[in-house]
Amino acid sequence: MRVEVVTPGLATSVQDAGRSGYYHLGIPPSGAMDQLSYRAGNLLVGNPETAASLECALLGPDLRFERDTRLSLTGARTRFTVDGEPQPADTVVDVAAGQKVSVGFATAGARAYLAVAGGFEVPEQLGSRSTYALGGLGGHRGRTLQAGDELTVAGPTSPPPPGREIPDELRVPLRKEYELRMIRGLYDHRVQPDSMDTFLAETWSVASEADRIGYRLKGGTPLDFVPREAPFGAGEDPSNIVDACYPIGSIQVPSGQQPIVLHRDAVSGGGYMMVGTVISADLDLIGQMPPNTRVRFTSVSLDEALAARADRARWLDKLRAALVG
Questions:
Q1: Where does the record place the Carboxyltransferase domain (predicted)?
Q2: Residues 6+ apart with CB under 8 A from 5
Q3: What's the rounded Cα separation, in Å, for the pair 63 and 171?
Q4: Distances (CA, A) of 16 to 26, 86, 252, 273, 298
Q5: Domain that holds residue 256
Q6: Are residues 231 and 166 in the same domain?
Q7: Domain check: are 278 and 297 in the same one?
Q8: Which of 292, 259, 256 is nearest to 277 (CA)?
Q9: What pLDDT digit, counting tens, does each position of 132-184 carry?
Q10: Which of 170, 197, 219 is the last residue of a domain?
């Protein structure tokens, strides 16, 4: 089945669970920024939970479907309509051949996920259908959608009936303020202890420079660095280090001014020190932060991070139990 892209939205892209195993070669994982909402959408329409969906950032697309189908919209709250008629989020929705599906501006959260029964069919590249636009890899022609594009949906399938919903207790909550748990290191020793305490105590806000590569934060006090003699291979700026690898979620602070949290399309290494790394269980939250969202960092231990990861896995198990079968 073909799907016409009437208008593309702000930065709509095909995403799946991501591309693992190539970050050491400079190819990031990509994939849905909010994996929980993405997987919930697929499960809702009867797809494998890692089928390809559309990630709609801040403003979604207008799409026209060639045949009857069923779909769902999860994640960010938007004005979601079929031929102008409002439709519920987190619910299986019927769409007839020729109807136009519209995903408007996000009114809460930042990214909505449009899952269609059967899943979007684009070629796998390096084991994933996810778009890595910076590298022109994967998705639909390696880029975000444009007006006039034609997408293909796999099928036929036997999706669940319209009206099926995600239980209230398993819907992803959307807030205006978040706490992000982080593990300190590898370079927090470069910051004066009282300055690091201030970093953790203050509330930051998401800047306009926030995308799939990284989230810049503003509004806090600049870091105070421990004096040093710059090592060979590092620049003179106190935040420079000899080039090192970056994990997804790492928090670098160029010149000590504004933290940048790296996300799923980030570069794999560089020369800025990192004060810590946001734990994997909290990375989905970042994907739902529009500009001006308020953020605080909380330092946790590795054991606490692993416990949070296990909690997230149990939440997914409950979602599968509620929607599969």
A1: 24-315
A2: 61, 62, 63, 145, 146, 147, 148, 149, 150, 151
A3: 25
A4: 19, 26, 27, 30, 29
A5: 177-313
A6: no
A7: yes
A8: 259
A9: 999 999 999 999 999 999 999 997 678 888 999 999 999 988 999 999 999 99
A10: 170
How many other C-beta atoms lie within 10 A of the C-beta of residue 320?
Answer: 13
Give the burial class of 304: count Cβ atoms within 10 A of its Cβ; 0-12 exposed, 13-18 middle, 19 or more buried.
middle
73 inside domain: yes
> Is 63 part of any domain?
yes
Same-domain check for residues 150 and 209: no
**What are the φ and ψ backbone dihedral angles of 128, each rounded to 5 degrees?**
-150, 155
Is residue 323 a part of any domain in this protein? no
Answer yes or no: pTM beyond 0.90.
yes
The CA-CA-CA angle for residues 265, 269, 271, to 5°, reads: 130
Same domain, 181 and 114: no
Distance CA 212, CA 265 (A): 5
Per-residue pLDDT tens for 34-46? 999 999 999 999 9
